[in-house]
């Protein structure tokens, strides 16, 4: 027996027997004794343990050396299972690197089990950047291990192999916690996980040999976590041979198996191809919806049992609520069934058990119950996403006070996940115009959301709207950064971990609806000085933050408030927004183009500024590129993944077409610029046959605006130009002319001016006819969409009137809509939970 004070020198011994004896003594002295663990960590025992674990004997199978590594792994695990203060000291690059290197098929199974458990414990206790991003080869190592150990569990009961596989599958969701990181490991892990799950299901059916329930549950959950639309399609193609046994597991006697089966079936449901997305939810194929409805009773029973157990001191499994959140986020009948079963009230009761009277200031609550609280909030967010009545019920249940309380807690690693979930609830509730104007005004939302975005600038630096008169019309050079009106320190990507960026992303998504023109929270939020933070987010390398920030900027310039537009442009500038129009992410392009669409709506001033700062030819080159948008998949992208992004390409075309609509709704000189770019107009004519009716409608509006005749919409300089061409010496007319002579002269000028402009209008119409617009409009007279048919009638009448020599005025055709259309500006917003619809 070695004395405890002498253990560290013996750990460094070259004699493996002495080293093993020291390790066993160390294990006995630290297990169950936190003070001993802290003492040994202070003396540097961590480095010694990592050294032993990470140095296998090359090419030699030495039982003593292997046992030393195993004992060191077990001791390291004991340190990890301690309180947060001790376990946090294990979060070093050396620890993670050593444990990851152990994960290969040549390591002893007992060492694999110890290392996997330690990694699982550390990643469960503390959020870190996804392990797969730190160790790119990790997914491949796990895949090889799963493939190596899987065959043995189907032919013999190998307890240690089962332990290895169970811990491998448990680790999979933890190394890639976010959706994007999960997709990154899918290619490596899906195949071996599917083989393991499918093999376990077939084994129990064919031979009656049931695989270990813990292993089966862990494998099913890991497969559900990594599932992609492509893999889901392959599973569906396999037929009932896979799904039927999984459905049978919903009746398994143990809770873990039922929950894992429900999670996998839910993942299959959400990966199923959606038929149509609207403001009432996502409609899926009938067989997919039937599958989802089958899951509701199972999950609600699991939740009821968990709530009942909570009265006896046992807490609800967060995965139940997380699965329900995924299932309900599409709205529709599935959500209705859950609400009818009292899900909203049950969630609020769970939150009340965690923190009575919204007392979330306790760090213990957020650290120990953060997973459960965040899952509860995410589920509330999903339930209210598409239904105003459900949002009202969520408010009446007191959820908003919970959200505000969570948002105003201290920012720590333990609170990140809960704050993100609170932002999701806020975003859902902000979809209600009524709630925006009533309940949310006095709720303390503004301070909470601004704090999550970052530190607000000092009071004297805040760009208050009333202090911004206009934006300089001086052209900006495209190779320079836009001039800022304030000098505000804003966080950069390099200063933040990915988890902090995720919090800012969620907060930015919540901001989107709060800054719409009808929101009473718009001015308080802007007065808090968030514009530099939003613009900073639009520059971010982190795609989700860049997307939501661009979305928020789009909403800020929605409407007729010229002061707000001026304020936004004073911070943003044209170079950045044009750069975002060509972003590598298609959804960012859509939002940037919609920003320009809203900016130019009902604003000849900003049309001119766009041309002056960017250049007319550059603007039309941009429009030409976007109207020609055809999705070209990268080499490694599958057809299914391409189909999932297809709607965004159409949305880019719609946004681009409405920019053209708004330019054509400006002065006559703006319409002249449009009509002179025949390449762009030729694309508009071609798109009049597009399968999406919104594209067809935007094209028709372009024709209407280009052929509309409206005297008040002429710029003064345009009238002066026409007058000068008709009577160049009119300004020198003698002062002694009689009133009748003056009146006759004015009538003559007016007649010549009308003829001048009539010739311009007729020429525009002839260009459109030559490009084939009139022929395409004839086809659209039978369009299945009423709005397209009605606007087509207007466009045909205007073209025919101009080409035939008549003037298309409201006096001639009283059924025509009077005035120019600027197009319908989209008040859409950023939706983190797989939706892009905001009211």
Throw out a few tags for this protein.
839 residues, disordered C terminus, single chain, elongated, 44 helices, mainly alpha, two-stranded antiparallel sheet, 1% strand
Q: Please, could you describe this protein's structure?
A:
- The protein has 839 residues and is mainly α.
- The chain is 66% helix and 1% strand.
- It contains 44 helices and two strands.
- It has a two-stranded antiparallel sheet with strand order 1-2.
- Strand 1 and strand 2 form a beta hairpin.
- Helix 16 packs parallel to helix 18 and helix 33 (574-581) crosses helix 34.
- The chain is elongated and about 120 Å long.
- The model is unreliable at 455-491, 632-644, 722-736 and 805-839 (pLDDT under 50).
